[in-house]
Amino acid sequence: MAHIPDGVLSFPVLIGGGVIAACAVALGLKKIGDEDIPRTAILASGFFALSLFALPVGPSSVHLLLGGLMGIVLGAAIFPAVCVALLLQAVMFGFGGLTTLGVNVVNIALPGALIGSLVAPMIQSATPARAALIAGVASALCVGLTGLLVAPALALSSADYMFSARVMIATYIPLMLIEGLVGGFCISFVKRVKPELLAGAA
Amino acid sequence: MIISRALASCLALAAMLTSAQAHRLKLFATLEDGTISGYAFFVGSGRAQDADLRISDESGKEIAAMRTDSQGTYRWKVPAAKTYRLVANTGDGHIAETLIDRARFSGVSTNVTDSTTGDEDGPASNGTNAAHIERIVDAAVARQMRPLIEAYEAAEGRTRFNDIMGGIGMIVGLAGLAMFAQARRRETKP
Questions:
Q1: Closest CB to B91 among A44, A167, A197
Q2: Which run of H or E residues covers position A168?
Q3: Minimal CA separation from B85 to chain A, in Å
Q4: Which of A67, B15, B159, B174 could link A112 by a cystine bridge, Cβ 3.0 to 4.6 Å?
């Protein structure tokens, strides 16, 4: 769903996505401090492995995006993390594409970065239960936002690739629920076991 | 340490999930007796139902549009021996395409022209026994090859445990490289 393959998007959309992604990755790399490298790598590998696995839902099939979770923990470092993971998925599995790498990075990482940096301060001062709730809602919102970014990327490219609102609703709504649960569970777990991990979101 | 524990659980999870596969939309198409048929499927996770399917010829002109059924399958009777490009689109960002090359029409092309001229007696009556045999062989080969091609298509996009481990290893390596670079920078700075 968020892994748009090669040969689908038009040139301006690819260039636009590529430029935004390049700037965002540069910004993210700049913000990664010594302490942030291990957790960036762990979340990158988590995203790399988990988003490969999909379940059939309705007429289509969905997989985890983890945008909210990564955004909350990593902040701007989500961009290099997602970029590396998507690059490996494209090269190793033909999942997504090399030319669409920029657009896919933006679609997955941008909602996470925005919503994550917004809710991270709230989560820091919250109890684990509240943190889980906030993270769950944030994760679900990130999935929705990713859907809202994928739609215009396809629509701007070609009228042929019509976006079906019906399929979107049928696939993204269940995914939002799953992501909300996963994000909420992970954050409340980290909050209880290792709250420092959530303190230094770049 | 939490980081190594997290990494360990990541690995355990990946190991657990190896029976599942990447979801990537693929379009299977086969040519049998002048009809292109097949199905759209997600590698390892089911068929794409009610997906938009468009067929265009070499010039890029769209000549047919249809939707896959509840099993993700489609059928299309070929009007002439040309190269066809089939594009399936589920409507949520999954798009797959496949080509049926004109070279594959060798036996079928005669079949297509036969049926358009309304010749119901079969090619044997035309005295073109060779064409008749070619058509029978084509049909038999297509029928026998189909499961093989299906298995190949399904296997091609499959994610393997080794590949996933390789990817995770690559990310760990990159992180090591970044830490090395940062440590050096710190050393040279003061």
A1: A167
A2: helix A165-193
A3: 13
A4: A67
CATH number, span B21-157 = 2.60.40.10
B25-32/B84-89 β-pairing? unpaired
Q: Where are the domains of chain B?
A: 21-157
Q: Show residues of chain B in contact with A59, CB under 8 Å.
A: 48-51, 90
The residue in chain A having the minimum alpha-carbon distance to the alpha carbon of residue B163 is A92
Instruction: Catalogue all structural domains in chain A, each as residue range(s) with its CATH number.
Output: 11-197 (1.10.1760.20)
**Residues near A116 by Cβ (< 8 Å), separated by ≥ 6?**
A67, A68, A70, A71, A72, A73, A74, A75, A78, A138, A142, A201
Amino acid at A78: I
Cβ proximity of B157 and A9 under 8 Å: no
pLDDT, tens digit only, all 190 positions of chain B: 555 565 566 555 544 444 333 457 888 888 887 888 899 888 767 788 888 888 988 888 888 888 888 888 999 988 888 889 898 888 776 788 888 888 887 654 444 444 444 444 444 455 578 888 888 888 888 888 888 888 888 777 677 788 889 899 999 999 999 888 888 888 876 5
> H or E stretch including A50?
helix A36-50
